[in-house]
Design a protein that fits this description.
Helices cover 48% and strands 10% of the residues. By secondary structure, it is of the alpha/beta class. It binds 6-O-phosphono-beta-D-fructofuranose.
Length: 553
């Protein structure tokens, strides 16, 4: 266990930021821009094919320096090296977190318990390539000899959200006609609606589960296999239609998956960081291995940027520190992810697990209760849709909600002036957040509309936009394998930076265990009369009774 670091909030660097915040309370971003014509240029950094405009933030050069000083006092650079060199940064599980090894080009040795993981990764990528090429060139077919037309990926959490996001994001790079379906929910609707869309003879099932113990995935896989057998597939044919990606090969074999049809995962990869592994097979089957390797290359480029760029010019470090700034010094409780590209519409979903399952913690790495806010609620949605849903609250609500706008300079689908319209919407939203609209400006507008003074007096206050609300704008040339890889890796490292400041283990997830345990106890009470003893509280008991009554149990 590392020695007890000085409590975060007693650090002089923390105190300096409190003083800085107090000074900035009386400063508006409008003023900061008016005072410094070079502001936008100075707060614009690039790396790994992405560029970040972080000038619309409540910061000065001094603030940035003080945030970096805090990071250094928390040993961010040393911890970054630990992470990327295979140190056991996942303290409670005594494991490394080597998602960066999954996308390393291979010319490096990283040992975990004496095994060179980079070699294992490269070997697995080779197996993936052979498999993917076989499916795409139809040398590998279903039991009837027909080419596969559909892939059903059964997994949840990191075995679902990451592949689904990347599969959607890279739709323009699809090879062949493979349709990918993602099933996660234990709600039977998910698997049933999917099976209605596919034919057993041309469908490939991927059972995606690092533990191979996740209830949703196992139950859905059993339904899929039974459906396959009931629809013309044979036990023998299961071998050519069901593959597994797991760290638990014996469990996969017990399920009836041939060992040859199991792709490995490893304990040193967290579920929410695993899309770069064979968990990414649905993506590779959709876009082909060349584009999948480009995805990995983009992420690796971001790894290099994170490792090499000075903290003040480092995209993950700057974004992570700005998130800490608002979360801990401006009482921001949430952070909005606003991708202005329809292909990136599932980015907030994936980042919710990535960030909230990593930093939704209340004890430090050594188990001490924290006395400060840790992970914020991450939420968001695709622009411009959000402008017609929740941007009202962002602009005129009582809360400070920092936002990340993410938009490509070019579209895959040029039509009319749509991309310029989208870009104008994105820029207008971040400008409105920053500049707002004063009462005087609102009154002048109403006067120009010809309204009388009484109406202006009544309506004016409702038209004021407070402004001074911070946002980042991330741009890229286009949504493409390399830029999507870099974007997701950027947020992985941003999450890591925050966890280092808050002194958390960002790679375990003990908080999800209680729900699973309680679920195991409640299920038999729902299904069988003889277990109607109390579930522990009258609310749960009455709801169990109502479920049983409604379902004639
Ligand atoms: O939510 C808990 C969790 O363990 C996630 O961390 C993980 O991504 C998900 O469940 C699925 O786990 P597995 O891949 O082992 O089925």
């Amino acid at each position: 266990m590392p020695e007890q670091p000085a409590a975060l909030t007693s650090k002089p660097e923390w105190q300096a930021l409190i003083e800085r915040r107090d000074k900035l309370r009386s400063v508006s971003m409008r003023e900061l821009f008016e005072q410094d014509p070079e502001r936008a240029d100075r707060y614009f950094i690039e790396g790994a094919g992405l560029a970040l405009d972080f000038s619309k933030n409540l910061i000065t050069d001094e603030t940035l320096g003080e945030l970096v000083a805090l990071a250094r006092s928390c040993r961010l650079e040393e911890q970054r090296s630990e992470l990327m060199n295979g140190g056991k940064v996942n303290l409670t599980e005594d494991r490394p977190a080597l998602h960066t090894a999954l996308r390393h080009p291979g010319n490096k040795t990283i040992l975990v318990d004496g095994v060179d993981v980079v070699t294992e990764v490269q070997q697995t990528l080779g197996r993936m390539e052979t498999f993917v090429d076989g499916v795409l060139n139809a040398s590998r077919t279903g039991f009837s000899g027909k080419a596969f037309t559909d892939v059903v990926s059964i997994g949840i959490g990191g075995s679902y959200l990451g592949p689904k996001l990347v599969g959607e994001s890279l739709q323009p790079y699809r090879q062949g006609n493979i349709r990918c379906h993602y099933v996660a929910n234990i709600d039977g609707t998910d698997i049933c609606e999917t099976l209605r869309q596919v034919s057993p003879e041309t469908t490939l099932f991927l059972i995606q589960s690092k533990s191979f113990r996740t209830q949703e995935t196992l139950e859905n896989s059993k339904v899929a296999r039974q459906w396959f057998l009931d629809s013309g597939g044979s036990e023998a044919a299961v071998a050519s239609h069901f593959m597994a990606v797991t760290a638990n090969v014996p469990a996969a074999e017990d399920f009836g998956i041939d060992a040859d049809n199991v792709f490995p995962m490893w304990d040193w990869v967290g579920g929410r960081y695993s899309l770069w592994s064979a968990i990414g097979l649905p993506v590779a089957l959709s876009i082909g291995m060349k584009h999948f390797r480009d995805l990995l290359a983009g992420a690796h480029a971001m790894d290099r940027h994170f490792r090499e760029a000075p903290l003040e010019r480092n995209l993950p470090a700057v974004m992570g520190l700005l998130s800490v700034w608002y979360n801990n010094f401006w009482d921001a409780e949430t952070h909005a992810i606003l991708p202005y590209d329809h292909y990136l519409r599932s980015l907030p979903d994936h980042l919710q697990q990535l960030d909230m399952e990593s930093n939704g913690k209340c004890v430090t790495q050594t188990g001490q209760p924290v006395h400060y806010q840790t992970g914020p609620v991450l939420w968001g949605g695709v622009g411009s849709n959000g402008q017609h849903a929740y941007h009202q609250l962002i602009h005129q609500g009582t809360r400070l909600i920092p936002a990340d706008f993410i938009i490509p300079l070019k579209t895959h689908n040029p039509v009319a002036t749509h991309h310029a319209d989208l870009f104008a919407n994105c820029l207008s939203q971040s400008r409105a957040m920053m500049a707002g609209k004063t009462l005087a400006e609102a009154r002048a507008e109403l006067r120009n509309e010809g309204l009388d003074e009484e109406t202006i007096d009544a309506l004016g206050p409702h038209k004021v936009i407070p402004g001074n609300k911070p946002s980042n704008t991330l741009i890229m040339e286009k949504v493409a394998p390399k830029t999507v890889g870099a974007l997701i890796a950027l947020y992985e490292h941003r999450t890591f930076v925050q966890g280092v400041i808050w002194d958390l283990d960002s790679f375990d997830q003990w908080g999800v265990e209680l729900g699973k345990q309680l679920g195991k106890g409640i299920l038999p009470k729902l299904l069988s009369e003889d277990a109607i003893n109390s579930a522990g509280d009258s609310s749960t008991d009455q709801l169990i009774r109502r479920f049983r009554s409604a379902n004639g149990l």
